[in-house]
Design brief:
This protein has 269 residues and is mainly beta. It has two helices and 19 strands. The protein is globular and about 50 Å long.
Length: 269
């Protein structure tokens, strides 16, 4: 069944046939864009969709964030010296057997409106036999000055906040490609993928998140928590990154939203 993309202002709704799967939310009512909620076939969300939650409010479903971009925090939202991601333009929208939304964002200081870098974010949706796959491609360009992505725990670049029902303290679990289970064995560790799973109502579901060989420092280290956060993070555990003026740093990740049963090794590089 084909995908449909329906635009509603600055939001792009992604339909799997007639069923709403997720939305790409790019409006100015939020400091930063995100993808979510992400619906399972029973109507419940794989991810936590609480746009202004008092606990980690910046962790909106599927999001992009980096805790130190030339000293400005683009991960957290509360406090001083924080950043925003402003929609510049929508570059490409496609539906059919696959769907795609590509948009350009400018990363700016909330306080001064100073720009730090540009980002082109491409989300490609693909129906596989055992999941709906979302290819997330990120391109960060130092369009205004040299950029340093600092060595901070609050980093991704790609983060996911899973539904509360999948949290480890509520019966969920996660495992990585090396056999590690839950935060005690996965946090800070290198792995090709992590798979977070649990029950949504009466349905077993999971989110498998894959690093790709084309990414720097593959396989990534993981900032992954029992409370429901899952994020790749080489900046803190391996090395800060420098992007010279005019150059681009690219990332490519794969997310698989699955139901009932899934072999996470199937899509690993």
């Amino acid at each position: 069944m084909a995908f449909k993309v329906v635009q509603n202002g600055s939001t792009f709704d992604i339909y799997d046939g007639d069923r709403l799967f997720t939305s790409c939310v790019y409006g100015t009512e939020y400091v930063r864009p995100f993808m979510g909620p992400v619906y399972a076939t029973n109507g419940e969300s794989f991810t936590r969709f609480a746009p202004h939650h008092e606990e980690h409010p910046h962790q909106r479903s599927v999001f992009v964030g980096i805790g130190d971009v030339n000293g400005v925090d683009f991960w957290n939202e509360v406090g001083e010296n924080k950043g925003k991601m402003v929609l510049d333009s929508v570059l490409h929208v496609q539906d059919g057997e696959t769907a795609e939304v590509t948009a350009k964002f400018v990363w700016k200081s909330i306080e001064t409106d100073e720009p730090y870098m540009d980002e082109v974010r491409t989300l490609v949706f693909e129906k596989k036999e055992d999941c709906i796959a979302v290819h997330v491609k990120l391109a960060f360009t130092a369009a205004y000055e040299d950029v340093t992505l600092g060595k901070t725990k609050e980093a991704g670049p790609l983060g996911i906040r899973v539904a509360d029902a999948l949290r480890v303290d509520r019966g969920g679990r996660f495992e990585n490609s090396e056999g590690g289970v839950n935060e005690e064995e996965c946090w800070s560790k290198e792995a090709k993928w992590c798979n977070y799973e649990g029950m949504l109502g009466d349905k077993k579901v999971g989110i498998a998140y894959y690093d790709r060989k084309s990414n720097r420092h593959y396989p990534t280290a993981w900032h992954i928590r029992n409370y429901g956060l899952m994020a790749a993070n080489n900046f803190y555990f391996k090395s800060e990154e420098h992007i010279p003026m005019g150059e681009t740093l690219e990332y490519d990740f794969l997310l698989c939203f699955w139901e009932d049963a899934f072999d996470a090794q199937k899509y690993a590089d």
